Amino acid sequence: MVEPRVTYGNPSQDHIRDIPQVRYKALSESIENKQLPEINADEYEKLGDALLSKGKYFMAYMQYENSLKKNKDNIRVEYKKGAALLGGGRNEEAQKIFKLILQKQPDFALAHEGMGRVNFKNKSYHIAKLNFEKAVDLNPLLWRSYAYLGNLYDFKKDYDLAVKEYKTALTIKPDAGYIHNNMGASLYMSGRYKNAVDSFYQALRSNYNSKKVYNNLGRAFVALELYDNALEAFEKGGTKASAYNNIGVGYLKNGNTTKAAECFEKAIELSPRFYVLANENLKKCRLKQQ
């Protein structure tokens, strides 16, 4: 059992595989060769937005390009073009676009956020923090920037400040399940286990039903020594065997070697693949019993 897991940024954008160059070219050519009815810049932008929301980043990028051909001075669409590149993993190209926007309009808050996201991905965390702080200074409604600031404070193990940033993000975007999960992880790490449980449940109520959240919830229940609740959560986050192994680790950490041994033996019985891990944990348990 390990520390609760944090989701960095927007999962729909940070966990999408890049489309290979050859595929991107094929997509581009297939769209360009179709005889589409003449549409205006706003309609191309809306098409791009729809594709971006579905994670089709390079197809979205092409629609934004089409929009800019109709209206080349639309900075908002320029930003969206950079966001599409960033979502598809083309950080350097996105960064160039955000920089050009800021040269034209230094107070464009979303471009500062975009720069922050690039620097965050590049692990330039100090610069990213400055970017996000500038973004929310210019536009206090940029909830994603607050969420990233929470991530950055988590890195520094400054969990109280992380929680503060997550709470601010959630006042603007209350249904962001991954932020509820992140706040729960920060609360857990600061020892506020009951509050952590509430945050993990809120993440689940926000339709963020990932195995990650259930495992985090299980860890919080173990810390509260609510083992039946923990077992149920761990099962939803993995398998029955992994759940018993995790509960065993919890019992062992809390000094109950008898219960820990029972759980490790149950994990071994349920799944041969857990034999090595659970058996190692069982040996640790036996040593503590001596």
From TrEMBL:
Keywords, alphabetical: TPR repeat
Swiss-Prot/TrEMBL GO biological process terms: protein O-linked glycosylation
Organism of this sequence: Desulfobacula toluolica (strain DSM 7467 / Tol2)
GO molecular function: protein O-acetylglucosaminyltransferase activity
SUPFAM superfamilies recorded: TPR-like
Listed PANTHER family: UDP-N-ACETYLGLUCOSAMINE--PEPTIDE N-ACETYLGLUCOSAMINYLTRANSFERASE 110 KDA SUBUNIT
Pfam family, any one: TPR_1
Official protein name in the record: Tetratricopeptide repeat protein
Renumbered ranges of TPR repeats: 109-142, 143-176, 177-210, 241-274
